[in-house]
Amino acid sequence: MQLKSTLLTFFNLLTVSTLFFTFGCQGKKDPIDTNRPKETISIERARKMLESYQDRYASLTELREGKEDSRYGWHSLEFYENYIAYLKHESAKIGIKVSGIRLYYAAYPEDDRSGKQAGYQTYLYVPTYYNEELGQHVAFDPLHVDDAGRPVPLHQVITEGLPLAEKQSAAIMATFNEETLSSIANMGEMCPLNCPEEDGSSGIN
User: Fold this and answer.
1) Cβ atoms 202, 68 nearer than 8 A
2) Of 127, 126, 80, 86, which is closest to residue 105 (Cα–Cα)?
3) Dist CA 183 CA 171 (whole Å)
4) CA 175, CA 182: separation in Å to the nearest integer?
5) pLDDT tens, 50-95?
6) Quick one: how far is CA 73 from the chain centroid?
7) pTM score
8) Is the previous residue joined to 192 through a cis bond, with omega within 30 degrees of 0?
């Protein structure tokens, strides 16, 4: 009787330990590196880079007949966290690993939709994956793949007007305001127009 009780206790402990180990390992994530990234630069270097840009900015202002263009943009930290999580989630559905985010310099068109932002420069966030065959990071959209499951060449689509694959599922070809849904992000707060008072920039606060 005592042996049976001892064995029962042993098997109960073994079961609990197995469950703890199994679910504990599943929930364990790779540690995040909190060291300063190698891509960070010094204050002095940042200042020199902004000074180097000033001539280009002055020429752009002259081209705009004295109207200053945007100097910088802002997105919340929550946006970056959510956007990266979204890209990873959607890319996992098609079996592709996101390798990074490419920034495209752009400008708001001179149309009614742009409103007061018309003509101001901005930027677009576009995800990339690493193409082993080409040996480089390539722009793509996890919402748009061809019939073989390969990413559509997004760079050519947005820079040259290359049409998307003709045959895509209804889910992939979902539209938003009669435009094709994508994973490209924008809508940052650009300065000008949205400048905090402490930076002394012109524009609408």
Assistant:
1) yes
2) 126
3) 14
4) 9
5) 999 998 888 888 888 888 888 889 999 999 999 999 999 999 999 9
6) 14
7) 0.74
8) yes
Query: CB neighbours of 167 closer than 8 A, spacing ≥ 6?
Result: 147
**Structure-token pair, residue 129:** 């994956």
The stretches of the chain forming alpha helices (DSSP H) are 2-27, 43-63, 77-93, 154-160
Q: What is the pLDDT of residues 18-33, one digit of tens each?
A: 434 444 444 556 678 8
C-alpha to C-alpha distances, 130 to 94, 117, 134, nearest whole angstrom: 14, 34, 8
* Tokens, residue 196: 């905090």
The answer to whether the beta carbons of residues 138 and 151 sit under 8 Å apart is: yes
Report the C-alpha gap between 185 and 118 in whole angstroms.
Answer: 18
Please provide residue 70's backbone torsions phi and psi, each rounded to the nearest 5 degrees. Answer: -65, 140
Question: Do residues 154 and 140 lie in contact, with contact meaning Cβ atoms separated by under 8 Å?
Answer: yes
The two three-digit tokens of residue 159, written as one number = 């820079």
Could you say which DSSP state residue 113 is in?
T
For the chain, counts of helices (H) and of strands (E): 4, 7
The token duo for 14 is: 């073994």
